[in-house]
Structure formats: structure tokens, C-alpha cells
Fold this protein.
Amino acid sequence: MSEIDDGTRLRSYRGSRIHAGSARAGTAVLAFLKGAVEKSAIMVLIISAWEALPRLGLVDPFLLPPFSEAIGSLLRLFQSGEMVRHIAASFGRSGLAFLAAVLFSIPVGTFMGWNERIERIIDPLLQACRNTSTLALYPVFILFFGLGETSKVAIILWGTVWPILLNTISGVKEADPLLIKSARSMGISKAGLFLRVVWPMALPSILTGLRLSAATAILMLVAAEMLGADRGLGFMIFYYQERYAIPEMFGGIIFISVLGVLINYGLVHLEGRMTRWKERTVKG
């Protein structure tokens, strides 16, 4: 009888766990759908107003064509292959600048965040550089590098390096000193201290810097390509604006906006996967 009772209890326990897991999954799906509806409602409202206002004559259709016309122009640009050419050029410039910013900012920011004396000495210079308008320096970059690719990559790099650098410094500085002291008391090596204690604690701040830099890279890309370029998304928008091809211009703007949103959500997803330990720590 006891074996039968144990088997019954085991099946009941497993069933309750499966039921609880299904309930949590269902709750998560409902929460996701609710959030998606709430987030999309405002976008549907804005797109509907954009479509309706020009068609009703409340806004000059030449200055603001209906949303469907802008999307149609964007699709035609893709069909002709022109959009792909501009995307490839823009991704090459922004990707190279963003990669250079990451490779420079994370090691330097880690060193400065760990060495408080160096950070105090260099911080005034960092703040001055960070608060200098990137676009105001564009003529300086043109003087040094000309109108070629180097100046465009340099201006994007200048705009994207600061969020990663400053967030890396902040993340390393804010590492819990008690955990660092405890790890040192256990005889951990310096490399192990960085990899197992400091780096995981600084990672959320670093990923936030990456998100900010990715958004900045898109903004700087458009500005950099509006002068002295013959291809790229920024060049395309400026080119069609000069020729009063307004639907094509808005099509390019819509694509850049969607691209920025996708990159942001991608980095948010990456941050969630790389910092799951935070959720486990909070639950524990």
C-alpha cells in the first residue's frame, strides 16, 4: 500500500508542477500580448492619423504624403535594389565605428573604473569631450580627414565611444566592495576577480552603454552621410529631399526608425540573456 501511495503522491506532485508551469507560461503569454497591444495601440493611432490627415486635406499631401505612399516608395526602392546599396554602405560605416568604439571603450573604461586615481585625473577631460557637440566637430574631422570614408567613420566613432566608456567606468566603480573583499579573502587571482566578480557586476551597465551607443551611431550616421557622400541612408534621405521626392524621403526615415527599434530590442534581448543571474539573485 505504501508503494501505491508513494506513486500516487509522486504523480500528484508532478502533475501539480506541470500545472504550475503551464499556469506561469499562460500568464507570461497573456502579459506579453497585453504589453504588445498597449505598445502597438499608440503606433496604430499615429499611423492612422498620418494616413488620414493628408487624404482629408487637413495637411498638404505634398509636404506630408499618406503613410501608405511612403511605404510604397520604400518597397519600390527595395525592389530596384537602390535601398540595398544604401543599407550596405551605411552598415559598413556604422558597424566599423561601433566595433572600434567597443574595442576601445570597454578595456579603457575597465582600467579607469578600477583605478580611481587615473579616473579622477582624466574625468574632467572626458566630461569636456563628451559634452562637445559631435556635429560641431564635423568641420574639424573634414579638415583632418577630408570628405572620404575616414571622416564619416571618425565622426560616428566620436559620437558612439562616450556612452560605452562612461557606462563601463560606472559599472566597474559600482561593483560591490564587500563581494570584492570576500573574493580577495579567498585568495582569488586578479584575473579571476575581474572575470568572476567585477565583470559580471559591471555587465548590465556596459550593455546599457552599448544600447545608447547603437542609437547614437544611427543618428551620427545620418548626419555624417548628408555631406560629402554618394551613398548611404543619410545621403539617400537628403538626396530625395533636395529633389522634392517626399514619399521616398519619408520612406527612408521610416526605415531608419524601424531599424533603430529593432537594434534596440535586439540589444535588450541580449542584455536579458546575459544578465539572467540578476533575476536568480533577486529570487534567491
About this structure: The chain is about 85% helix and 0% strand. The chain has a mean pLDDT of 79.
